[in-house]
Structure formats: structure tokens, C-alpha cells
């Protein structure tokens, strides 16, 4: 019997919980934690193909979002629009290959499905100054009236390609390739330092 290798976070060597940065009145105004473990599956296909779109909907419990920069949700699972023919399905860890298999079974040959859970680091930051931290790095409009809950965008932060989502008010998830995980964590914590920040235990 083959034993599965345990997945280790890209941040394992540097992740430390506690309060850091400037000592500010009222305490830290930014909170960070890594989102893990997660099941993350890249989906590619034609949204006009009923076999594909219907299959994704059946496996995920929600319809594919077709408007640029939008997110569809079903419980704790999210479908994030990346491009006209590409999406990410993200949920708390369902077990090795479970979400990928469900999508493959539902879509058949109509789509391209690949598990990328091991290849992404996802960092959540929230709090009164979370938007200010994001403004330091990504050339996007982070105004409350523009980057609202349920929106997503792809941009660069510190020369790293990122996917940024807004799951709730003043809350952002930053997706980055695993190889850039430590760099992105160090950049975000440095940017949050002036506001004071708190690091919490990882939660999916």
C-alpha cells in the first residue's frame, strides 16, 4: 500500500502566531492567517457547453459565474472566475483528489480538470486597514464601493502574480503560487506593520 506524503505548508518555516508591528491605540487593525488545508481545482471549458456547465454545477452545487471578476458560492465552496474559459473551485479540504474526481465524473470529456491544491498558498487578511495594506501592493481599485464582497481580480504584488478575492467586507484572500508563498507572506506582514497586525492559526 502506497502511503500519501503529508502536505506541508510553504509557510511552515516562518509562520508564527501572535501580535506584531507597531503598537497602536486600540490594538492591531489587521489580522492574517493562512487558509489551509484547502481543495483547489482548476477548471477549463466552454460555459456555453451544457455538458460542461451542467457538470460543474452538479459537482459544486452552484452555477458557473460567467461575469468577469465574480464568484459563485455553495456553502463553503467557491467558484472563482479567472477568464472566459477558466475558473477555480475552492473549498475546505475534501481529501486527496475528491473534488477533482467529482468534477471529472460530472463533466466527463467536456472540460479540463486538474487539482492544484498543492501548488497554491492562500493568505487571508482582514480588518479595518486590510484595504490599505492591499493598496500598497496591487494597482487595483480597492474602494469599498468597487472591490466588494463576491469580487475577484488578478494582479501583481511585489512582482508576484496573484489572485485576490473579497469574501467579506474588509476581508481579502491572496492566492499565489506555492514557490512565492514565503515572499508574499513577508511582503504582507511588512506592509501591515505600521497598523499593527495579528497572526492567527491557519484555518481553511
Helix content: 10-25%
Low-pLDDT residue spans: none
Distance, first to last CA:
29 Å
What would you say the CATH architecture of the largest domain is?
2-Layer Sandwich
Number of helices: 4
Strand order of the largest sheet: 1-12-2-8-11-10-9
Q: In words, what does this structure look like?
A:
Helix content is 20%, strand content 34%. The protein has 204 residues and is an alpha+beta fold. It has helices at residues 50-60, 98-107, 130-137, 181-192, and strands at residues 18-20, 30-34, 38-44, 71-74, 77-83, 86-92, 112-115, 120-126, 151-157, 160-168, 171-177, 197-199. It is built from four helices and twelve strands. It has two domains: 18-36 and 119-199, Probable tRNA modification gtpase trme, domain 1 (Gyrase A, domain 2), CATH 3.30.1360.120; 38-117, Alpha-Beta Plaits, CATH 3.30.70.1520. It is globular. The longest helix is centred in the last third of the chain and has 12 residues, at 181-192. Helix 1 (50-60) runs antiparallel to helix 2 (98-107). A seven-stranded mixed sheet has the order 1-12-2-8-11-10-9, covered by helices on one side. The model has no long low-confidence stretch (mean pLDDT 95).
List the helices and strands and how they pair.
Layout lengths: L17 E3 L9 E5 L3 E7 L5 H11 L10 E4 L2 E7 L2 E7 L5 H10 L4 E4 L4 E7 L3 H8 L13 E7 L2 E9 L2 E7 L3 H12 L4 E3 L5
Helix pairs in contact: 1-2
Could you write a compact summary of the structure shown?
The protein has helices at residues 50-60, 98-107, 130-137, 181-192; strands spanning 18-20, 30-34, 38-44, 71-74, 77-83, 86-92, 112-115, 120-126, 151-157, 160-168, 171-177, 197-199. With 204 residues, it is of the alpha+beta class. The chain folds into 2 domains: 18-36 and 119-199, Gyrase A, domain 2, CATH 3.30.1360.120; 38-117, 2-Layer Sandwich (Alpha-Beta Plaits), CATH 3.30.70.
Amino acid at each position: 500500500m502506497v502511503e500519501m506524503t503529508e502536505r506541508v505548508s510553504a509557510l511552515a518555516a516562518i509562520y508564527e502566531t501572535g501580535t506584531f508591528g507597531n503598537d497602536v491605540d486600540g490594538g492591531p487593525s489587521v489580522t492574517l492567517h493562512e487558509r489551509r488545508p484547502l481543495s483547489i481545482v482548476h477548471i477549463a471549458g466552454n460555459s456555453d457547453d451544457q455538458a460542461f456547465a451542467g457538470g460543474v454545477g452538479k459537482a459544486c452545487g452552484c452555477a458557473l459565474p460567467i461575469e468577469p471578476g465574480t464568484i459563485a458560492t455553495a456553502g463553503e465552496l467557491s467558484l472563482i472566475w479567472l477568464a472566459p474559459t477558466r475558473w477555480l473551485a475552492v473549498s475546505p479540504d475534501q481529501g486527496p483528489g475528491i473534488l477533482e474526481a467529482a468534477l471529472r465524473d460530472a463533466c466527463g470529456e467536456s472540460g479540463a480538470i486538474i487539482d492544484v491544491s498543492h501548488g497554491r498558498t492562500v493568505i487571508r487578511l482582514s480588518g479595518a486597514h486590510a484595504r490599505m495594506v492591499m493598496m500598497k501592493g496591487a494597482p487595483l481599485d480597492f474602494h469599498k464601493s468597487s472591490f466588494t464582497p463576491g469580487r475577484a481580480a488578478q494582479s501583481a504584488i511585489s512582482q508576484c502574480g496573484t489572485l485576490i478575492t473579497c469574501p467579506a467586507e474588509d476581508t481579502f484572500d491572496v492566492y499565489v503560487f506555492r514557490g512565492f508563498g514565503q515572499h508574499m507572506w513577508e511582503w504582507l506582514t511588512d506592509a501591515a506593520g505600521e497598523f499593527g497586525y495579528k497572526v492567527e492559526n491557519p484555518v481553511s
